[in-house]
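Researcher: Good morning. I'm working through a list of sequences from a screen, and I'd like to move beyond sequence-only analysis. For each chain I'm collecting a predicted structure so we can compare shapes side by side. This is the next one on the list. No need for commentary yet; just the structure.
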Amino acid sequence: MSITLQPLHLPFLPRGALSEAVLARLTGADSGADHLALAGEELDRAASILTSDDVQLTLFTLYACAYGSLPHLKADLEWDLDLLATRQLLEAAFERELRSAVETPELPEPNAGAVAAALFALAGEDAGPSLSRYFAKHATLPQAQEFLKQRSIYTLREADPHSWAIPRLHGRAKAALVEIQADEYGGGRPDRVHAQLYAQAMRGADLDDTYGAYVDVVPAITLASHNMMSMFGLNRRLLGAIVGHLAAFEMTSSIPNRLYGDGLRRLGYGEEVTDYFDEHVEADAVHEQIAAHDLAGSLAEDRPDLLPEIIFGAAACLTVDGQVGAHQLRAWKEGRSSLRERRTA
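Model: Good morning. Structure tokens for this chain:
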């Protein structure tokens, strides 16, 4: 198969036969490929779903169609049955691997205090190498730019994956999520929307703030982190998992963002770049309490059947994001880039 996607001005290229066929379908250059068959072949071939470039780019593209984050993808194909079946097959394999890889602790009692305590304990167990501590003291300017590129995959769409849960929640948990998300979306001030603050940071660092501009250079594990959020958010049966994910995400954000801001200041960047990170030091210190007690804790009280999924979602967040950080840190300590080499068509 040979499909020329470059004239469509996509910001990235396929990473295999499956992503090539799906991109062709979503951009109107359909080759008539059997997407399900290609997906099955790639799943059989992949040693790991989390690190399969072809699978993760395919999922990223299919989710991007649902978000509307890439205008190049045809909106009328969001509910295409063939593509939905392909996504479902990939998601099933992705979820199986996550559930096999993620270790979850013993479940707490389904009350807000116990659930919050369990989540804080889980978030505090990670004693591995810290990307943020390394960044604060040792990161170089090229590494800082790499970091900003890696983070752009999620952060230029910050909060959106978790917002899928809003219509599926009720009462206390719904109110708590809306409170968190209102802050994420700037509290009514467009210039304070967190995704916009990150776009400002990228511009201040002389980087392209167009969404998807760096998809081509980030590794599969970075795509997997964002895809995991999208999968949890878009599937109603995974409501508990997206709530647990957000709780863990907020609990592990405040201190690292302070360190990232310190590292950027050390490298000479000004407020235009550091504002995003400084904003999260205070905001996420508040959000972690709301997410643990009022969101996850209240949901567990109201829906005890979702407690295992809440804990799984939190553990999955810590596991996969830990792998993303470990990949970057390992590359930097070995004196190499954490990014993929950008290819040409």
